[in-house]
Design a protein that fits this description.
Strand content: 5-15%
Structural class: alpha+beta
Number of strands: 5
Strand order of the largest sheet: 1-2-3-5-4
Distance between the termini: 41 Å
Order of helices and strands: HHHHHHHHHHHHEHEEHEE
Radius of gyration: 37 Å
Shape: rod-shaped
């Protein structure tokens, strides 16, 4: 799309001529561009008050002007989607089209050049080129007035052309800037919606994915304990109920946008969840060794990593190693590792990148799967 197209919201270049002429942006131009025709009253008055002219001549002159005005109104919507060179050529063609008017209308046809400047202001991207056209048109008007010796309004046409032309070039630039700002505001709003959707998807996955995984593990354990240890099974069922309520609270928090986690809390939850799944947890260092600003990211990493261990690893041991600026979660499982097709690891990678960290995940050479978050 060209720089002039957004000026009036013109149609794309792949639309037909009728679609361009009936586009909402075209109708806005028709309304605004018609104001420029007010100046043409000088020509119509001159045509019908000039001495010695026949009625037929005056009708022909009026029809010629009406045709020129129609071309003036229809030209911008037709050329907005085109290349700058096409728009410039079309505007200069409109200027050249005024030449025959001098034969039917007379020297007052110079007032049509104001319409040429309006078209240039609203179709040309370059302000410098538009101002050059203004200077050229004004100079031509001054030369005609000087050579033919017309006083009064005709002799002043050069000044009107220059002043109105500069004004229209500035106005067209201002409209372009306004449209760009509106487009930028709409893009910012769209990105904000996309970001909120991504946040909600991350929080929903990270919160409910972990909670439901633990619920599934504990439910399976409770089913095994019902027959041989009803009291332990009752304890596990109570944990399932608690986790379900926590998952509901997490869902509400995710919807409201206030979902938060702590590293200490996630480590405690990880220990309970791994124990329920029959996986031993090794935690060489406490959460306090991690820099405070990195603890939320590491908390989400612990949640995602432990969830994957319970879902995929079939491991007997899980190690969570913490340092001041790093986290490593490794299991000794033999099952297939996460393939990254879900949203968990990509979402965690986004959280890490936002904190200036990088995520690395994959099979460990010594066996099992390893997830690392570090600078």
């Amino acid at each position: 799309m060209t720089d002039a197209v957004p000026l009036m919201g013109a149609a794309r270049g792949d639309l037909g001529l009728l679609a361009r002429l009936t586009h909402p942006g075209a109708w806005r131009w028709y309304a605004g561009g018609s104001i420029g025709l007010v100046y043409q009253a000088f020509e119509l008055v001159a045509v019908w008050t000039a001495p010695g002219g026949s009625t037929a001549t005056r009708i022909i002159a009026t029809a010629s002007l009406a045709g020129y005005y129609a071309v003036y109104l229809l030209l911008p919507p037709l050329v907005w989607p085109e290349r700058e060179a096409v728009r410039v050529a079309a505007t200069l063609g409109l200027l050249a089209l005024s030449a025959p008017l001098f034969l039917t209308v007379g020297v007052t046809a110079v007032w049509t050049w104001l319409l040429v400047l309006c078209v240039a202001a609203f179709t040309w991207s370059s302000q410098a080129a538009g101002l050059l056209l203004v200077a050229g048109v004004g100079g031509l008007a001054l030369e005609i007035a000087a050579v033919l010796g017309f006083p009064g309004s005709i002799a002043a046409n050069w000044w009107v052309c220059v002043s109105v032309g500069v004004l229209m070039i500035a106005f067209g630039h201002q409209v372009r800037q306004t449209v760009r700002l509106r487009a930028a505001g709409a893009e910012i709003a769209r990105l904000a919606v996309d970001e909120e959707r991504a946040r909600f998807a991350r929080d929903l996955h990270d919160s409910l994915g972990h909670s439901l995984t633990v619920v599934a593990v504990k439910s399976e354990l409770a089913g095994k304990l019902v027959a041989r240890d009803p009291a332990a099974a009752t304890t596990e069922i109570a944990d399932v109920e608690r986790l379900a309520r926590e998952a509901l609270a997490d869902l509400r928090a995710a919807v409201s946008g206030f979902r938060g986690v702590t590293l200490d809390g996630e480590l405690a939850s990880a220990a309970a969840a791994l124990a329920a799944g029959g996986v031993a947890l090794e935690l060489p260092a406490p959460a306090s060794v991690v820099r405070p600003e990195l603890r939320p990211v590491f908390a989400w990493a612990v949640r995602e990593g432990v969830t994957n261990v319970l879902r995929h690893a079939k491991a007997s041991t899980c190690t969570i190693a913490l340092s001041r600026t790093g986290l490593r979660i490794r299991d000794d499982g033999t099952a297939a590792s996460p393939d990254g097709s879900g949203s968990g690891l990509p979402g965690l990678a986004e959280r890490a990148a936002a904190a200036g960290m990088r995520l690395e995940a994959g099979p460990h050479p010594g066996g099992g799967f390893e997830l690392r978050v570090q600078r």
